Structure formats: C-alpha cells, structure tokens
Hints:
Mean pLDDT is 86; it is low at 15-28. It is globular, with a radius of gyration of 24 Å.
Amino acid sequence: MRSMKNVSARAKVRAAVTALGVSIGLIATATPAHAVTYTTTDNCNVPWINCSYGDLWLLYNSKALAVKDGKYLTSWSSFYGNVNDYWGTSQYQGSTLTTYRYVFNGNGNGSWQYMKNNAASVRNCSDVDNYRVYYNSGYLGHSQYFGHTTAWASCTFVDLDSTLKNNNASQHFA
Length: 174
C-alpha cells in the first residue's frame, strides 16, 4: 500500500511539472497581436520622441570620402538628444508593438543600411548641444566627445576615432 502512495505522489509531481512546462512554453511563444517595423533616418520622425529635427549627423563614410566639391557622396542619419541604442526604438501602442529601426538615408554610399555600427564620421550641427557617441548601447564603453558649433560657424565635422569607427551604438548629451 505504501508503494502505491509513492507512485501516486510521483505521478502527481510529474503531471504538475509537465503542466508547468507547457504553460511556460505558451508564455514564451506568445506574440503581440500585431507588430509593425519601420525604418527612419532621423529619430525625430519617431512619434513618441519629442523633437523637430536631428542636429547630430552620423555619416557612413569618413570625412575624406563623404563630401566632394561641396556635394555629399555618402548617406547619413540624424539624431537629436539621447539615443540609447542606434538599432532602434520600440513601443507598445495598445496591442501593437511598433519599432523604428535607424538607417542611413538614400543619398549615396551606405544607402538604406542599418546605422548601428556602420558610421565613420560625425557632424554636430547644433549651436548649443554637445554630444558623446558610445561604443555600446546604453551609453557604455569607450566614447568620443563632439562639441557644438558657434553661431557663425558651420557644423563641426569629425571622423570617429579608430575604436568607434563602424562600432557606434548610442549617443548622449555631453
């Protein structure tokens, strides 16, 4: 009789573990009712970001290859403010997960490629905001400082240092 109770208890435990595993599997594979992904060349185009235009430009090519005879030969993305991850930003809007991925514009070299870990130079066109570009998402790792312009000067145009060239993941006001 004793062994029947042990078998019965083991069977109950096994059934509970199986039910738990199935429940976890269902939760892990649940997806939102709807998911939408867009690409954008400026984080100010994202509806939940409050800005009107980006003043920090990240360019696909270095300075030497970006401009010739006053014409841009390379693509760029522009940003304003703190950007935690150049891969993009997501937000639930009701049951829809909306994601914006940052890409270079269609101007030339690098057209429509993802921006994260792909930039070689920076233009800071703000006359008041300083920035830092970081190696890792979340404002972590090695960074480079980009000072603002003066009211009468054109945009500051600088190559990313050798650590950050094609390894850039976030930016922050400096």
